[in-house]
Amino acid sequence: MITITNAIELLISAHPSYGEAMSEEIVNFSALARKLKPGIEEILLEDVTEGAVVMALRRHAKELSSKMPRESVHQIRNITVRSEITEIAFQSTPNLNKVHQKLLAIAEKFDTPFLSYGQGVGETTFDISTVLLPALLTMTKGEKRIAKFDNLSAISIRLPLGTVTIPGVYYPFVKTLAWNRINVYQIISYFTEVTFIVDDKDIERAFGLMKAMTKRSEKKGS
Questions:
Q1: Nearest-angstrom CA–CA distance, 193 and 143
Q2: Residue 27 and residue 39: Cα distance in Å, rounded?
């Protein structure tokens, strides 16, 4: 049998911002109850009182406090910014893996250029320093290009080893960029490093936001 609490859990899971406000104790439970009441009644196929919803919300808020992802922003090891990057996406073919290998050899001639290669099920993406662009364009003649974006920058964040097993470790970064209307063209994730590819015009603001997040978390942890 589905209860009011079960219905609330389903609705909060679909709207994480509600859950975050509840866990931070900054939500008006009566107002949220009125917001969720129609959805709860649709799930339960019966009417419920606002008071019953408020009581269930308060119980659920206590559980959320220990579950919301708030970890590891203060544990950032360093933040690196790279500019003059181009992103090109192609329809995947076996040849593009060979192109990647050749591009790696060419990159050795330059001073630590940015080069990221990602192969999905149907498409392959290169994020590269613009100095490598002529070589890539030459080697991919005949390949079906899906998209090309110029004037991009990368902001890379290094995290401790332990954070790789923490659910939601990237959540604070993604949320902050989204709330500040900073478009992310690509998220490149490695074992203890995550890189966000953004517009050149947004990189200074993105860097400032990441630094501000780190400082706020350091104060909370001190």
A1: 30
A2: 18
Q: Residue type at 165?
A: T
Q: Which two three-digit tokens encode residue 159?
A: 């995290």
Amino acid at 120: G
Q: β-strand 123-129 against 78-91: which pairing, if any?
A: antiparallel
Which residue has 């290998």 as its token pair?
Answer: 101
pLDDT recorded at residue 71:
45
Helix (H, G, I), strand (E, B), or coil: what is residue 163?
Answer: helix
Nearest CA to 22 out of 55, 54, 49, 62 is that of 62
Integer Cα distance of 222 and 68 in angstroms: 20
Q: Are 17 and 64 in contact (CB under 8 A)?
A: no
Q: Which of 18, 20, 45 is nearest to 34 (CA)?
A: 18
Buried b (16+ CB within 10 A) or exposed e, 129-158: bebbbebbeebbeebeeeeeeeebbbbbbe
Residue carrying structure tokens 């859990």: 9
State pTM to two decimals. Answer: 0.75
Per-residue pLDDT tens digits for 133-163: 999 999 999 999 999 999 999 999 988 887 7
* 125: β partners: 89, 118
